[in-house]
Amino acid sequence: MSTPHDSANSVFRLGLFRDFPTLMHYRDFGGYQALANALSGSPEAVIGEIGAAGLRGRGGAAFPTAAKLQMVRDNPPGVRYVICNADEGEPGTFKDRFIMTHIPFQLLEGMAIAAYAVGAAQGFIYIRHEYPEAQETMRRAIAAARAAGLLGADILGSGFSFDIEIFSGAGSYLCGEETALLSSIEGKKGRPRLKPPYPTQCGLWGKPTLINNVETLANIPPIVDRGSAWYRALGTADSHGTKLISLSGDVVRRGLYEVPFGTTFREIIYDYGGGLKQGRLKAVNIGGASGVVVPPWELDCPLEYDACGQRGITIGSGAVFVMDDSRSVLENVRNRIDFFLHESCGKCTPCREGLRQAGRIIHKTLAGEAVLADIDNLERYTRTMQNAAFCGLGQAAGNSLISSLKYFRDDYEAMCRDQNQAAPKEATA
Amino acid sequence: MTTTVNFNLNGREVTVPAGITILEAARLHGVKIPTLCHHPDQRVKANCRVCVVEVEGQKNLAASCATTVAAGMKVKTNSPRIRETVQTILELIFANHPQECLTCIRNGNCELRRLAADYGMLEVKGEMVTDALPLDTSTPSLVRNPNKCIKCGRCAEVCHHVQETGVLYSHFRSVDVQVAPEYGKYLSDVACVLCGQCAAVCPVGAIHEKDDIASVWAALDDPGKHVVVQVAPAVRVSIAEEFGQPPGTIATGRLVSALRKLGFDRVFDTDFTADLTIMEEGHELLHRLKTGGALPLMTSCSPGWVKYIEHNYPELLPHVSTCKSPQQMFGALAKSYYSQKSGIDPADIFVVSIMPCTAKKFESQRPEMNASGHQDVDAVLTTRELGRILKQAGVDFATLEDDAFDDPLGISTGAAAIFGVTGGVMEAALRTVYEVVTGQELADVEFTAVRGLEGIKEATVDLAGTSVKVAVAHGLGNARRIMDLLRAGQADYTFIEIMCCPGGCIGGGGQPYGTTNAVRRQRIEAAYRVDAGLAIRKSHHNPAIAKLYEEFLRHPLSETSHHLLHTRYKNRSLYKLKG
Questions:
Q1: Looking at beta carbons, which residues of chain B come within 8 Å of A384?
Q2: Catalytic annotation present for B550
Q3: Is pTM, for the whole model, over 0.90?
Q4: CA distances from A37 to A11, A34, A404, B184 (A)
Q5: Which CATH number is correct for B126-209, 1.10.10.10, 3.30.70.20, 3.20.20.140, 3.40.50.970?
Q6: Which of A232, A255, A276 is the last residue of a domain?
Q7: Which of A59, A409, B49, B377 has the smallest number of CB atoms closer than 10 Å to its CB?
Q8: Minimal CA–CA distance to A36: which of A119, A158, A121, A145?
Q9: Which CATH number fits the domain that encloses residue A396?
Q10: Are B92 and A344 a contacting pair at CB < 8 A?
Q11: Would you say residue A127 lies in a domain?
Q12: Is B360 a catalytic site residue?
């Protein structure tokens, strides 16, 4: 990870990204001051500070974090849980793994503060099975925090007790969907549940549960430590703080970047990523597998929730995948539809059957066997998935399709038989 | 708390009870929203997504079955966006569905086909991607065709949450999703009780009764066969539904006429052997009370329940009455008593049962059910199959005149008529046991405490100074709760009635499609009307039964009775392991 801006304006504890992260290092860089601050004040004050900072969920949905904390807190007294969603599964996204393997204590501290805010005594980190090194680092970090009195009973002598367990996912993309994740921890199939009731009211084993992404929780300590005013100054009027961007594809410097909100995608690709390795920019996929494909002229859009929303760009988990003109947008979209078809839980019709039909048409198109009417059907199936699928996965699975049909329809039509003189001839009997 | 909410439905302000879904609210106001995975008695699944509507302010369409109406909500159930979405979802389902509508057992009553017609489906624009999975024809009762499954989950829901048998699960993911027994096993290899509740709630032809109409036609067409038919008590209050009449229509007389028109040589009544069951089972209870036999005594009329206890609680089998079910008692008598009386060789007698039940097909084929030296019952048709065979024969059910059952196996009482409803066997037994024990006439024959759709019902009856506590359960989930109490030594009952299907036989797995709790209530009410309308309402007052004992059986629990009318059940494991 490297950033062009100085560490004073960084949410993440820079300087720790070497070897195995130790608690001592983390504390040297100001770690756990936030927890001490939080515990000396009221839970309401913590929520108030996070609310003032304008932190929004970094997992993709961008829900205001303070509102979620308050919803869990508002339940009648009783057992409640904090769950860290570390089922990072978006292809091209690697920010959560980075946080867990390099700054695990920042996550643990964020969870402890969140737990204090909502009144939870138990937390879980749901780490995907494919991240064994992150699981190992988090285990060691939990043990170290526990030994130092930063987890477990009576944290820092405050009377507040909170402990964390690691839960290894069973290997399904869908388990990143919060209700499917709950089912998975409960030992059931990782399939989404009906909402309402929302997890904030009726979550793990029926108890109020706070579920947040790794990056979201890791944002909490700096906010509590350095204040909401400092945090708000990092972003724009609409989107506050910074965002971790997983930059990959045909750029010179691929990697993870912490960028302040308001940075344009062009800056991310050219200033942070050093521009393209070769060729010309063809398209950029923003937001991971469930994100959108945009042409170069959309890149002056700033990384900002409103600005992106207006243009139909989903920031999602913050993946940016750059494609030069040697790549086929259709192949890229096909790969993502194949991915979703594999990962669909199969519960609802639009997602299960819509992805099957969409996949068929894209494969047919790439094989030069589709006709223009197939493209219309592809669009209709995708609309149906977006309109009517049961959960966010199915609704978002068509994003790459819809955006590619919007910007790159010519590429589809050029591959259709009735647009192409050189179409394969019908086999004769 | 406000008990109503106002919201805007298709541009009109309407008032509905608070807490109901958009789907329910729309139906209250005459707006039909299509559904497939929805079932009024089941939990909300929201899988199929054909019930989507527009809610103002929401980006996506909302599943109306899963969205509660909120005050001030603006809902549209009909818009170009909704129509396109619903039509596309139907098209997506059809692309993965065999286009065998004309040769499907659900032709004419398939919920998917009905929607396709309503939505003017003229073509499937997507690519046909049908499955070629093997059919499960492993049991005598049910056929499972996974290729027609639309993954709505209604069968799995009833199997898990009503019957709690847990046989059908949703497996795998994505397009590989299947609703099936575990590890691709056949129904014959798992602890399926063949109750057919899955078939009763399936919207399409993915699981259905095994059709035995051909074997019945073969017997009827064979001049060498003397074909007799018996009709279960629950069929007379449901068969009219197969011909478009409302649930709860009593059609006893027309049913007899219809069966005569089919060509049966004798039309008899399972109600006769229901009365006989009361005599045998009632005396078995008295015998156990006197001799210290295993108590509580549990009824054995319901073959799904019997198979269930064999699989799940075999150690409690000594509590189960040794009486065969009325269906099997009838078969045994038809090929012994009736054979003797009529002078017809039992080898030439072919016994057909009309049952509300799919498990009865299995029961009739249990190898031990051949006391006369011949299989007691040769063929079983469900109510639905009866509807079909009557249509094949061109019987115009609506215009039939009433007719009466044949002697001697056709005379019955009100006690027998209520065998078809939950609590009916208990009530019938109490009417007889009370009078036998006390020697006094029972003034009020109606034991209302054991009536109704409540899952487990209890009553205490005073029998000449001794209080006898009884329990009634219907649906195997409720049976499980009683069995667990019994196993824990916490059930202080003397007599327990259990019926496999919710509502008893009127809610059987072979009953007309569209059975819901509302329909069950109508059929139950009709069964009690049949009882109330009969001159004789106690089994031991049935003159034909008295004659049967006098001429043939001698007395209840006699040697002949034991030989013909009683049986033993066996321990079945939960899983059949293949070698």
A1: 84-85, 88-89, 92
A2: no
A3: yes
A4: 17, 5, 48, 57
A5: 3.30.70.20
A6: A232
A7: A409
A8: A158
A9: 1.20.1440.230
A10: no
A11: yes
A12: yes
| B85 vs A189, A344, A388: nearest CB | A388
Whose tokens are 């929203």? That residue is: B33
pLDDT computed for residue A3 by the predictor: 41
CATH annotation of B4-78: 3.10.20.740
Q: What angle do CA B105, B110, B116 make, to 5 degrees?
A: 130
Q: Which is nearest to A66 in space by CA: A96, A45, A42?
A: A45
Looking at the structure of chain A, the number of domains it has is 3
CB B181 within 8 Å of CB B166: no
Q: How far is CA A298 from the centre of its chain?
A: 22
- Say if A81 falls within a structural domain: yes
Residues in B closer than 8 angstroms to A357, CB to CB, are 92, 95, 126-127, 129
Q: Measure CB to CB from residue B174 to each of A189, A341, A360 and give the nearest one.
A: A341
Q: Which of B104, B97, B101 is nearest to B113 (CA)?
A: B101
Q: Is B173 on the interface with A (CB under 8 A)?
A: yes
Q: What is the CATH number of domain B213-565?
A: 3.40.50.1780
Using CA atoms, how far apart are residues A170 and A175, in angstroms rounded to an integer? 8
Angstrom distance (rounded) from CA A295 to CA A313 = 11
Is residue A28 very low, low, confident or very high in pLDDT (cuts 50, 70, 90)?
A: confident
User: How far is Cα of residue B501 from the mean position of the Cα atoms in its chain?
Assistant: 5
Percent of the residues in chain A that have a pLDDT greater than 90, as a whole number: 87
pLDDT tens sequence across A149-164: 999 999 999 999 999 9
- With contact defined as beta carbons under 8 Å apart, do B259 and B267 qualify? yes
Q: Is the pLDDT of residue A403 over 70?
A: yes
A123 with A196, same domain? Answer: yes
The answer to whether residue B560 neighbours chain A at the CB level (below 8 Å) is no
Mean pLDDT of A180-192: 94
Q: Is the per-residue pLDDT at A11 higher than 90?
A: no
Q: Which residue in the list B202, B301, B323, B357 is annotated as catalytic? A: B301
Give the rounded percent of residues in chain B with a pLDDT score beyond 70.
Answer: 99
Using CA atoms in the order A59, A65, A69, A72, what is the torsion angle rounded to 10 degrees?
A: -50
To the query of whether residue B441 is one of the catalytic residues in this protein, the response is no
Q: What confidence score (pLDDT) does residue A20 get? A: 67
B61 in A contact zone (CB under 8 Å): yes
pLDDT of residue A5: 41
Task: Grade residue B190 by pLDDT with cuts at 50, 70 and 90.
Answer: very high
- Contacting residues of B for A197, CB less than 8 Å apart: none
Q: Are residues A142 and A275 in the same domain?
A: no
* Both structure tokens of A39: 């515990």
Range of the domain at A288: 242-324
The predicted model gives A345-374 an average pLDDT of 97
What are the two backbone dihedrals, phi and then psi, of residue B573, each rounded to the nearest 5 degrees? -75, 165
How far, in whole angstroms, is CA B74 from its chain's centroid?
A: 41
Q: H or E stretch including A293?
A: strand A292-294
**Interacting residues of B123 by C-beta distance below 8 A, sequence separation 6+:** none
Of the candidates A194, A355, A361, which has its C-beta nearest B66's C-beta?
A194
Q: Tell me whether residue B323 is one of the annotated catalytic residues.
A: no
B194, B219, B72: which is closest to B140 by C-alpha?
B194
**What are the strands of the beta sheet with A122-127, ordered from one edge?**
A163-168, A122-127, A81-86, A209-213
Name the domain boundary from A232, A252, A281. Answer: A232
User: Is the domain of A130 the same as that of A15?
Assistant: yes
Interface test with B, best of A387, A391, A395 (most B CBs within 10 A): A387
Is residue A4 predicted with pLDDT exceeding 50?
A: no
